[in-house]
Write a structure and sequence with these properties.
92 residues, mainly alpha, 0% strand, elongated
Length: 92
């Protein structure tokens, strides 16, 4: 996790973006290998990846909290949402 809980965990987001990029490329082209170009693409889109991660986390968090099937475990659901946000360094 990052030093500040108010900043998104950029290292984790970039790691996951790199993993997604690599898996997608290898699925499309099995002989594909990472290069300086692929690293440049990841770096260029880092801000987009971070914003996308924030949006996904917010959407999933809202879905968990609003899910009526979880009404009996609402406190646990809120704790799960908090844990997910903390893991990714997303501020409440």
């Amino acid at each position: 996790m990052t030093n500040s809980k108010s900043a998104i965990n950029k290292e984790l987001i970039l790691k996951l973006a790199r993993q997604a990029f690599t898996e997608e490329r290898k699925e499309f082209c099995p002989d594909w290998e990472e290069s300086e170009l692929s690293e440049a693409i990841l770096q260029d889109f880092q801000v987009v990846f971070e914003k996308f991660a924030e949006l996904i986390i917010a959407e999933c968090s809202e879905a968990i909290i609003k899910d009526s099937r979880l009404s009996d475990v609402k406190i646990a659901a809120k704790c799960c949402v908090r844990a997910i946000k903390e893991h990714f360094g997303v501020k409440e």
